[in-house]
Amino acid sequence: MGRGGNPPSFIPSLNYNIMIKKPRLSFWQIWNMNFGFFGIQFSFGLQQSNMSAIYKYLGASEHDIPILWLAGPITGLIIQPIIGAMSDGTWSPKFGRRKPYFLIGALLASFALVFMPFSQTIWMAASLLWILDAGNNIAMEPYRAFVSDKLEKNQLSLGFLMQSFFTGLGSTLANFTPAILISFGYFALEDTMENGVTVSTYWAFAIGAIASIVSILYTVFTTSEYPPTEEELAELRAEKAKGNVIARIYRDIAEAIKVMPLTMKQLIPVKFFTWYAMFCYWQYLTSALSLSLFGTLDQNTEGFKSAQVLTGQVNGTYNIVCFVLAFALVPLAIKIGAKGVHFISLLLGGIGLLIIPYLSATDILFSFPNPFGDGSIEIATIYLFTLGLGIAWASILAMPYQLLAGSIPKEKTGVYMGIFNMFIVIPMIIQIFTMQYFVYDWLGSNPINVIRLAGIFLILGGAFTLLIKENK
């Protein structure tokens, strides 16, 4: 990072074509620049596996769950395009261009993670989820543009798949943390706080807050950003003098939407079915497992608490598959193309979700010694679906961005990445309201059927991928 300088200036609509040839970065340089993604995804992993259970401990019903997840997509819809446009026009010699947003987002997310387990009411938890998602979105959106800023074209796949790796690693540790804490013997499965939230959940969220801050700081102190040219700095000062920053942000977004590349338009149905499916999965997996494996939806039973821990374990497992296979997708994408990889991956993920109701927590595939205590760890057939879902998840986090990166103007990378992330949050919003008001009842008020619907939608997303015309 440079020394001295003024605080960051937040000006959209600047031409940030860097007038230097980007050097080829080493593996470890790309590792360092993406390490902050670990903390962001640790936070998301905790949210995905625990929020539905926390809401139920505080008294929410199955019908209430979708609307209580509204914070994520709404904050993404509002914040990501704005932050994308703002970060395109931000520069400080001391703080850089994207890194100020990483830090602000990490601080907000850590605050929400620390206080979430102490929620006394459903709406207190929901309010903290709004803060948590706002922080994560502020940090995450510029990270997508950060890859395009730093890497030459031939390294984009590695950059985005490195983010898939850290997504898998962060989510895996987040999901396994409660089970690990219980395995160490510090807490029992039944240990709860006064509000009904399990003690292991509290400690997992506290660890997540530390991970969020530390990993972002690591990236900030190990990675520099390319400065704008003198001409671009002059343009920044001229734009700053005009004022009306927010109005120009929305103008910039509107103009970018008008001239949206064809590839980006063709990705809309792919993203719709994919993210509708994933939101169904995250919201209802605990209840589906509780009903399928333990025959109950009562959050006060040991069966439901076991289903919450199992949710973390299977989510952690599919994320292990994600980060183990993330780099294997690089040569495969070169050989058959990002489109082919994404189709096959979503097909496998959809099949994985469809077989969940036919799997068991008692039929054992194999066992191995417990590294955290006495006895052995037994792997049941319920873990089979995580192989397909993990492959799909690695592709979801990388291949659409690979398809998009070659079709958008470099000076508008932040804006277009923000708009592209709207294709994630809008399906989530549609899922919330449709599931809340008629789809859940249409599916027989059965969370298992919600998981089946998610599997079908992943397969449909894969089918629409085949219709994309790639920009060579």
Separate helix tally = 17
CATH class: Mainly Alpha
Along the chain, the helix and strand elements come as EHHHHEHHHHHHHHHEEHHHH
Cα-based radius of gyration, to the nearest Å: 22 Å
Q: What descriptors fit this protein?
A:
globular; Growth Hormone, Chain: A; two-stranded antiparallel ribbon; disordered N terminus; 17 helices; 4 strands; mainly alpha
Structure write-up:
It is a single chain. This protein has 472 residues and is mainly alpha-helical. The two termini are 35 Å apart. It is 69% helix and 3% strand. The strands form two sheets. It has a two-stranded antiparallel ribbon with strand order 1-2. It has one domain (25-465): Growth Hormone, Chain: A (Up-down Bundle). A hairpin with a 6-residue loop joins strand 3 and strand 4. The radius of gyration is 22 Å and the shape is globular. Helix 13 packs across helix 14 (385-396) and helix 13 packs antiparallel against helix 17 (447-465). The protein has helices spanning 27-34, 36-57, 65-68, 71-88, 99-115, 122-150, 156-183, 199-222, 230-242, 245-258, 262-294, 302-325, 329-354, 385-396, 399-405, 413-442, 447-465; strands spanning 9-10, 90-91, 364-369, 376-380. The longest helix has 33 residues, at 262-294.
